[in-house]
Amino acid sequence: MTKDKVLIFDTTLRDGEQSPGATMTHAEKLEIAELLDEMGVDIIEAGFPIASEGDFRAVSEIAERAKNSVICGLARANFKDIDRCWEAVKHARQPRIHTFIGTSPLHRAIPNLNQDEMAERIHDTVTHARNLCDNVQWSPMDATRTEEDYLRRVVEIAIKAGATTINIPDTVGYTAPVESADLIRMLIDKVPGADEVIFATHCHNDLGMATANSLAAVDGGARQIECTINGLGERAGNTALEEVVMALKVRGDIMPYQTGIDTTKIINISRRVATVSGFAVQFNKAIVGKNAFAHESGIHQDGMLKNSETFEIMRPADVGLAGTSLPLGKHSGRAALRAKLAELGFDLADNQLNDVFVRFKDLADRKKEVFDDDLMALVYQNESGD
Ligand code: KIV
Ligand code: ZN
Questions:
Q1: What are the tens digits of pLDDT across the range 314-339?
Q2: Nearest protein CA to atom 2 of ligand 1, as residue
Q3: pLDDT digits (tens, 9 = 90+) for 337-352
């Protein structure tokens, strides 16, 4: 079966960095961009060049260094932003300008533009961007709360003005999967010229549905997913890159799409982004959390020791982890204790194992996790009869 390609657009360095407190240094941004480029991200949104001198420098340097990825900068819907963005990205092998404006009634009220005035602004700014760069992305911010007929109208204007990618943001994480798919499907069906551009989905996680909404949008016809490493982003964050990429890999049977991501690089970049942003990854975070491939209960550990598919749907190596971990705690059983002791070089007879197991359970009741040193102490105590 040939699989349609879904482009991965990473915005860790732009939308991710907009999380309060996640600011990265220039060197950190270059490092993350290099890792994104190496792992096969199709488009890197490197920053918002007009936002600050630092952002401009970071986008420019990332543009100069990138080997494979398209390098994109963000610009509001005015010529000054767009010119500054172009200045920053123009040295990239493959530059892109991403320009946006809020199209929902709430967002139209901010610049105080009526529908016609905004439509004209969209036409003029997308035309201007396209005169500078032949790769232009346009986004109607808060698309999911924009009137359907107006959304159709402005998407058509942006396409006619030369946009090559139309991104449909769920800016406030308001949509639900069925709606997300229907919205993209409707735009592709009804907007003249829609078949000449790529539709993208950009979801936020306010209701915890960003990954589901992004995948539903792909089902509706989107062929670019916008996301960030670890789901970093404003408020509850953006769609997590590792989640959508692994979902497409693991469930290719029902979602026949491929990405160009080398998934074995996921853990390393996740850890680097957590470190440089200062946003620790929650233990039970899908794919990259400390517990995503860890099993403590006796039944699970016993199953894992016999066949890893009993409780794992992906191999740790697929995301770049050395292996599954079977931490020992009060829920663990004899099988995992025996395996752990063997790993530490102890080959105990059954009666010795039973004695250590009793002491181990006693300790585990008092401690969250029993570590290798604790276990060795238990074995030595047992041998000395203490
Ligand atoms: O969430 C959003 O709407 C955005 C746009 C700038 C694309 O990040
Ligand atoms: Zn966003």
A1: 999 999 999 999 999 999 999 999 99
A2: 171
A3: 999 999 999 999 999 9
> Is the pLDDT reported for residue 386 higher than 90?
no
**Ligand 1 pocket member 15 (CB < 6 A):** yes
Token pair for 172: 């406030």
- Write down the pLDDT at residue 159: 98
ipTM for the whole complex: 0.99
d(CA 248, CA 267): 17
> Tell me, what's the pLDDT at 368?
87
Q: Find tokens 């657009």 and name the residue.
A: 9
Could you tell which of 139, 146, 199, 228 is best to mutate to test the pocket of ligand 1, judged by most ligand atoms within 8 Å of the CB? 139
Residue 61 has which token pair? 């340097």
169 in contact with ligand 1, CB cutoff 6 A: yes
Ligand 1 atom closest to residue 169's alpha carbon, by position in its atom list: 3
How far is Cα 313 from Cα 293, in angstroms, rounded to an integer?
10
